[in-house]
Structures are given as C-alpha cells and as structure tokens.
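EI: anyone free to look at a 159-residue chain?
SC: sure, send it
EI:
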Amino acid sequence: MKLIKPMKYTVNSTWAMATAPQPDRLWPSRCLIWHAADPYLYIRTTVEGRIIAGGEDEEFSNEETRDALISRKVATIRRKLARMFPDVDTKPEFAWTGCFGSSDTGLPAIGEIPGAKRCFAVLGYGGNGITFSMIAAQLTQRAILGLADPDADLFALPR
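SC: here you go
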C-alpha cells in the first residue's frame, strides 16, 4: 500500500575525510566552514581536534562506482583544504563515501501521512541532515501534541 505520493528527488554520492587530531593547528573558534561553490566544500572540527572535510557530490548511487572514486575525490578535497589552511596536516586518517537523497526543492518533506493517523514521515534530507532532522523533530513533536507550527506548510508532505 502506498502511503504517500513519491517526491521528485535525486540520489547523490558524497565523499569525506578526517585528519589525525591536531588541535593546536585549528583556526580560531573552530567554526563550520561551508564554501558554497559547485561542487561545495564543508570543513568542520571534532572535539579531539580532527578536521573533517567533504563534498565533491555527484548525482549517482552505484556503490561500486562511488567507492572506486574515494581516492580521487578525497585527493581533491585534501587539495582544497590545503589551499585554505596551508599550516594544517591534510593527510587523511579516515576517508569514506555514501549516498543521500535530496528533493527538487532542497527541502525535506515532513508531516503526518494522509490517511494514516499518527504515522509520520520525514523524507529527503539532502546535505543538511543535522539541521533538517532537528526541524523534523520539532515539527513532529508539535503535531503529536496537537500544536500548530508556523513552518509546517514549508515542509508539508506531497498530497
């Protein structure tokens, strides 16, 4: 039984790396950096002082093809990181890849499934999973409690 109409979405592959800990070499405030180029680059730090950098997304989901690109994609991420921070050790201690889905609007679909009382769906996080999962938790909590949310229409499930 189909519960919701399918969203227009794409499946993308993304790559990331983590350096060895180097807390004394990190930038002030250790803020998240998002270079909004195409392809984008994100850089953040961990509690133990690692640098995590990632991006280089491509629109496909074949895991063998995706996995075969780890070395090349991580080398590109590493070069970009080194240009931005020439004094850090950019050698990857860990590297990985994965797939994620994204809607055509870039927004997730969040809400109660029509015709399935008290059954909720959260779909299409894209590259903003941490932010959208928090929004989803808040919207779903308010819906369960019977409270209106002024942002609910922005993320409504397709009807």
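EI: The mean pLDDT is 90.
SC: 👍
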